[in-house]
Write a structure and sequence with these properties.
Strand content: under 5%
Shape: globular
CATH topology: AhpD-like
Distance between the termini: 23 Å
Number of helices: 8
CATH class: Mainly Alpha
CATH superfamily: AhpD-like
Length: 176
Amino acid sequence: MSIEALKTRIPDYAKDLRLNLGTQAAEPSLSLQQRAGCFIAVALAARNAEVTAAIVAEFAPQLSAEALQAAKSAAAIMGMNNIYYRFTHLVGGDYPNMPAKLRMSVIGRPGVEKADFELWCLAVSAVNGCGACMSSHEHVVREAGLTQEQVQSAARIASVVHAVAAVLDGESALAG
């Protein structure tokens, strides 16, 4: 399945998502690797099999094997980190100052440009709703020279892919 096929699965009440999905798939402010990696990482984070399959089929051929692995790694590591750091941020107390004691070496050696990996982590953090992680990754990518427009583009991709996954999950539930 491709992005075009996925768009046909979006019901008419969500036609704005169909249009936004097409627009974001061609987002010009991001490099091909940044855009493709964002799509794949957030599709995995959105947890809808149909959306993930379509997006991986569309964007994986645009990435090197290392970049594809890194995009998947961004979704995986942020799936853990977003829960842990959202907990420490929301609960407060001494938790934010305590060692996490969680292995996360992929962040230091992602196999692609650090800024691209951090951008994908930022997008996944948006899907997972971790303000502490979004803030941290936004700071890193801005320090690396990415623009506010590029950060916003990653957030738009995250929002659209997540919304498409939610609509298709809802339609699946209604179909019984």
